[in-house]
Amino acid sequence: MCGIVGYVGRAQGSPDGAQPHGHSALDVLLEGLRRLEYRGYDSAGVAVLTDNGVESRKKAGKLSNLEAELKEHPLPESMTGIGHTRWATHGGPTDRNAHPHVVAGGSLAVIHNGIIENFAEHKAQLIADGVEFLSETDTEVAAALLAKVYETEAKGDLTKALQLTSQRLEGAFTLLAIHKDHPGVVVASRRNSPLVIGLGEGENFLGSDVSGFIDFTKRAVELEQDQVVTITPESFEITDFAGNAAEGKEFTVSWDAAAAEKDGFPSFMEKEIHDQPEAVLQTLLGRSDIEGRLTLDEMRIDPEELKKIDKIIVLACGTSAYAGHVAKYAIETWCRIPTEVELAHEFRYREPIITPTTLVVSLSQSGETMDTLMAVRYAKEQGARTMAICNTNGSTIPRESDAVLYTHAGPEIAVASTKAFLAQIVAAYLLGLYLAQLRGNKFQGEIKDILADLGKIPAKIQQILDGDSAIKELARSMKDAESVLFLGRHVGFPVALEGALKLKEIAYIHAEGFAAGELKHGPIALIEEGQPVFVVVPSPRGRDSLHSKVVSNIQEIRARGARTFVIAEEGDEAVKAYAEQVFSIPETQPLLAPLLAIVPLQIFAAELAGAKGYDVDQPRNLAKSVTVE
Ligand code: AGP
Fold first, then answer.
1. CA of 417 to the centre of ligand 1 (A)
2. Nearest CA owner, ligand 1 atom 9
3. What's the pLDDT at 17?
């Protein structure tokens, strides 16, 4: 949930007389925190090691508040430091609760991401030992425990102190620490919370994800569950919590710094909506050969095992769950395997029926959503095979799954998911086609035809983006709307749900998505004069009965005074008589239509939120990665 950065660089006049390498720690920390601010922005803080020991500055609110504080109270130059942006869990977003927490007479600074579930018992013991706490946070307890262990058991060995302390903490934590007696060293540990190491020349980095150091290096090593790492300018050493040495798996980050910039758009969200053609293209790239045979490189489950799969359960939250609902239609149609879609936070509490021939597929852009991670762990305990569809390389959910299919949407900075949503759907289509290919449900030629149609989607999305002025104009005209309804049927139903969620989360407008067929079972009572309703209409070339039923729905609500805004396939004449406005999308196979139908609704939400003057990228109360249950 929080953004974390750590840095060590070779200081001027280092003992080995080496040339000064690297950067000022503060520059690295602030640059990293700027990129990570989407992970949480209730407060921000930094701590550096100087000749006077640990020096720290921290402020509630956005990173800009900390930058103002640093201007007023500058820190001395340093080559070692840690930085943190917070999404409050224990204790409100105040200066006092902001990280870093500096303890033990100013000798030790700690930052933390996660929730320490047994902090209360440690806090009681530490208070009994005479420790006075300044904040309400679990982090300060962890810091005080580390200081105590450092003095009493580890005898000044900072790495050992963190190993011992980490063994005693339960829940989810990424901890970073610096100590006045250890210049040029940052230690860190992780359990159920992310941390990656960035490798430089004469400098090394730590980040809650690669965005924390992407401006300085693209070489990264993922830290595994229950590991401690000690970084210096020349080295990084990984151990488990018992102190046994461990190897790190290095990977190269494919994102460049520019990819995380806005490219001139008013918000990351609008940039990312326009990234969608590329996100779909990149997710398709390299996953099939010229014969149209799918080659999913990260599928680490034996094909013979996959052939025996007799049930698929898709686990996700929010927008990712709606991607799962779209995937269900495609997977069941193409490979005839019963597919359930479950909200991850509901899944493990309903005693689900799981067997070794159940494939549990998690959908997660961040790969760190705690609800989804815990559900995947539960499924594994119950014997299921697990597969992650994820957009963040090196994140926890794919690392803990048997197989992974990475989406290649690039960094999605805006809290509201757009390009990752489309990429998830594409990846789920690839999975469905792969299973169909493996099990012989589809001829190779049929699969090739579907892949060919998928290959045309990026250009069709671009066509919608190029013609977005009408939907933007409508959005601006509706900036004072108090409620908007969304109707859809078949694969259009999850599109209606997602369109409503976009409006809720960035424009703070009451919005609700319904299955169009459900209207007469209650929701039609909501229809009154002037009620705006978007209707996602299936292709007239698909099942005619479906199309005509939805046209009837438009007629019913129009007759009751609704303002009907229709998303329909180019050339669909039947809707025009009942629509106040039609937003056409290019023709494609019915099962692929969600990749196009959602785009006008994304644009509508972003434009309306912008017209209301809201922060489109960092909406209130939300964070990009929900790493608490
Ligand atoms: C999407 O716009 C929201 N930010 C939210 O619903 C998100 O999809 C959900 O929290 C799941 O996140 P994940 O994909 O990173 O697991």
1. 6
2. 318
3. 46
